[in-house]
Amino acid sequence: MSLSSLHIKNLRNLAEVRIEPASRLNIIHGANASGKTSLLEAIYLLGRAKSFRSSHLHIIEGPGKSGFMVFGQVTGELGIPQPLGVHYEGGKIHMRAAGQALTQTAELVKRLPLLLITPDSHKILTLGPRQRRRFIDWGVFHVEHDFILAYRRYCRALRQRNASLRTPSRFVPSEIWDNELYETAAQIDGFRRDYLQQFLPLLIHFVKKLLPADWDVSLRYLPGWAQDMTFREALTRSLERDRLLGYTHKGPHRADVVIEAAGKPVQEHASGGQQKLLMCALYLAQAALFKARTQRQCIILLDDLPAELDAEHRCKLMELLCEIGVQIIVTTTDKNLLRIPEGAEAKLFHVEHGVIMEQGST
Ligand SMILES: Nc1ncnc2c1ncn2[C@@H]1O[C@H](COP(=O)(O)OP(=O)(O)O)[C@@H](O)[C@H]1O
Ligand SMILES: [Mg+2]
Predict the structure, then answer these.
(1) CA distance 358 to 174
(2) Which of 9, 10, 12 is the best mutation target for the ligand 1 pocket, counting ligand atoms within 8 Å of the beta carbon and taking the most?
(3) Ligand 2 centre from 33 Cα, in Å?
(4) Which of 30, 76, 176, 313 is 20 to 30 A distant from 294 in Cα terms?
(5) CATH code: domain of residue 349
């Protein structure tokens, strides 16, 4: 699967862009503030209906504030292009696929599976659990069709329980939503455990390629409640605290995956560069597992990463990215920083003041 054509209108400094990316490697180069990250932002919007830079979409509108539009053709494994589009107008985002309006973002996400790596992505290792949970859930969502259903049911029951906890005088533990919570929590937990079991060997594989030989990477999954009790027991025990503070403290919405090397959290002993390489290994493993489980490919967007790695690791990373056989769209200020691996099908694009020109292919 790849994005075979892209049309952007009025998004930040990109007045009108039309490009046909290669199905494998695409290098986008240009000076600072030329529009490279905006291009990746547009693709991200096409696959997620949100930005990774601004929580308010009106900030993204180009001059005139008359909305923006991103349209693409996604060519699947059978070689048939499927149109996909988002447009933002009057403060609302609208999504379409193959001529039909979509009402749920999950439908868009399924059609254009994207992984995004930015210069900040290594913070996944050091920030709170939310980013790691999101990362794992991206993978689980794409390989387990029932995950989204269980997740939505869980969130609904959790909202009901929390609303009730916030009015303590009227709180009555409800069998109905507690049972719904137990059932869906068990499903979510099971999906995540299965996923991580398949994910770990791939992570170890990529860590071996990118990091020193003695890097013994492991994952410690924390389901969101103490592991020596069931979720039912954990909820019962935390009831008093939940009532006091007005929300549910335990459950899959508090899960985490701690990433360790040689039994210690990585942030305690890994250098900045090593943290970046480990983060890359996480994304490579996720792309490889996505491909193995779905027989489809995801698209990897890399923003400005190369400048932060030394030449040897940049080379290795490019080779590994090309080896897994996915579409890659990578931006850089200096195209000489990126060596196109031998035999890789690649296109080079130059960005200047929001104008993107194809400069050749291999
Ligand atoms: N809403 C907007 N409308 C027009 N231009 C914008 C808007 N938001 C940001 N820009 C400008 O778009 C340019 C491109 O930004 P960006 O894509 O981040 O550049 P790069 O990644 O190439 O360094 C910048 O000059 C920025 O100031
Ligand atoms: Mg940028």
Answers:
(1) 61
(2) 12
(3) 7
(4) 313
(5) 3.40.50.300
Which residue, 294, 311, 334, sits at the end of a domain?
294
260 and 300 fall within a common domain: no
Say whether both 107 and 246 belong to one domain. no
* Short-list 3, 22, 200, CA closest to 113: 3
Contact present, 154 and 182 (Cβ < 8 Å)? no
State in Å: Cα 282 to ligand 1 middle.
Answer: 29
- Asked if 264 and 134 sit in the same domain, the reply is yes
Enclosing domain of residue 197: 120-294
Residue ranges of the alpha helices (H) in the chain?
36-48, 105-111, 129-143, 147-165, 175-210, 231-237, 239-245, 272-294, 311-323
- Whether residue 305 sits in one domain with residue 288: no
Ligand 1 atom closest to the CA of 331, numbered from 1: 21
Q: For residue range 56-108, what is the model confidence (pLDDT) as tens digits?
A: 999 999 988 889 999 999 998 788 999 999 999 999 999 999 999 999 999 99
Query: Which CATH number covers residue 248?
Result: 1.20.1050.90
60/131 same-domain check: no
Record the pTM.
0.95
Clarify whether residues 304 and 217 are in a common domain: no
Ligand number with the minimum distance to the CA of 10: 1
Q: Is the pLDDT of residue 174 over 80?
A: no
User: Residues with beta carbon inside 6 Å of ligand 1?
Assistant: 12-13, 30, 32-38, 59-62
Shortest-distance atom of ligand 1 to CA 333? 22
Ligand 1, residues 13, 39, 40: which to mutate, most atoms within 8 A of Cβ? 13
pLDDT, averaged across the chain: 94
User: Of 9-13, 55-59, 171-175, where does mean pLDDT reach its minimum?
Assistant: 171-175
In this structure, the answer to whether residues 321 and 310 fall within a common structural domain is: yes
**Statement to judge: residues 231 and 149 lie in one domain:** yes
Query: What's the structural domain count of the chain?
Result: 2
Kind of pairing between the strands at 114-117 and 81-89: unpaired
Q: Which of 266, 294, 322 is the last residue of a domain?
A: 294
Question: In whole angstroms, what is the distance from residue 230 CA to residue 182 CA?
Answer: 9
pLDDT for 144 beyond 90: yes
Q: Which atom of ligand 1 is nearest to the CA of 62?
A: 3
**Residue ID of nearest Cα to ligand 1 atom 16:** 35
Instruction: Ligand 1, residue 304: give the atom nearest the CA.
Output: 21
Q: If you measure from the C-alpha of residue 194 to the centroid of ligand 2, how many angstroms do you get, rounded to a whole number?
A: 36
CA proximity to 234, closest of 251, 217, 256 = 251
pLDDT per position as a tens digit, 246-266: 999 999 999 999 999 888 888
